[in-house]
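Morning - zinc ion inputs below, output right after.
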Amino acid sequence: MLAPDALGLRDFEGASGAIADGMVLEGPLSAVNASALRANIPSLRPQPVGLATSAGVGDRLGLATPGHVRAFRKYGAGIVPVFAQQSMREMDRLERTPQQVLDDATFGCLEGGWVGAVGADADHLKSTVEIDRCLAAGFTSFTLDPGEHVRDVPAVVSTEVLGGLPWAALEDDAESMARRYTGLAVEAEGTVIRIEEEDIRRAAAKYGDAVAYTVSMYRHLLEHAGYPVEVEVSVDETESPTTVAEHVYMATEMKRLGMTWVSFAPRYVGGFEKGIEYLGDTTVFFNSLVAHASIARAMGPYKISLHSGSDKFSIYELAVAATGRLVHLKTSGTSYLEALGVAARRDPALFREIYDVSRDAYRSTRASYQVSAQLERTAVAGDFTDEQLPALVTNRDSRQILHVGYGAVLTSRDDHGSRWMSDALRSLLSTRAEEYELALETHLGRHLVPFAEPSR
Ligand SMILES: [Zn+2]
């Protein structure tokens, strides 16, 4: 075997040799080799996705990309995949670095043989430090999340509250703002959306801090990115739904302050809980999405982004109809649940441990997620027969408990400090790779079909 350089494979580590119809490189799944792969094979390099219909599929274990590739290849015509997508919160809980997230997706793309465009989404970034960490890894889509700066506001906003906004950062003052919006009507595809002064005062009180914070993150990103990047703005993880006037306010102000973005995730009406169907009236959801999508087309255009999008089968077709495929879908935990499905079927002892650890952790993990599972409605793993275990992955309460328990499970250590549950799950998935890939292909496929390009 020769050093990779000797055969023209630049920057790899490992050993290489010539074979009958080419050459073979043998090396570790290391950051050096992931980076060399991206340097040598252009299709493995993530790029900004722009306005193309797209879907991001998170992967908490770093093993799901080959199955994701199969889902996109079979069911995702005309949808740009974002295989590397993880929020900082998840990375921290999993003790994973942005570089590991990106590299796992790179190796998975190679293994799955994906040759189309790919994006890479650094999701829910809340600070410039987080932006820097993801820039260093080579992410190309940056989801800026100013959620902690969104305020609760009363029905009528006082002058004092308005006076407390960060006007200097907004390069604005209350009088100028009132003047700009007086009599404003946004024409969005036939419907005229009239904005009343009171609506704007409320919108500014609720989202003014968030706009200022987003703009500061955005400027930091553009100043420090040495390569093409794109931005999504998300306020989906906040208390109250984003109204039409509030969307208009945010978009107007971010534009005025020089921002461009490719997608926006408002806080939608109804329940977007983790891992389960949409909770609420789908007609109300559709009507509000039509309004948000019209604003996005009129003021951008930019895509409407559906976060916590997994398992919401009742709304995908409505979302496509409302947005005309100018849409981005995000799922994250659902691929982990497919992995747990394999464990429930193939390794009952391991699954029982995972389930009980998730259950124990639920009281603390539930705080940071939109979930409604009740511990009291579930039993401990010992109460179930082996045959009953797979149903725990699909039943609503236990599904959510498993969904948000990933951090406790995957970082749980034995006396020797090794992450034994994570290791056991990984080794099971590598011996059952075909079953896991097929489960991902089928389950993610159900998500992608409604968003795919209609065949002509
Ligand atoms: Zn989100």
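Note: Residues 124, 234, 236-237, 307-308 surround zinc ion (CB under 6 Å).

O.
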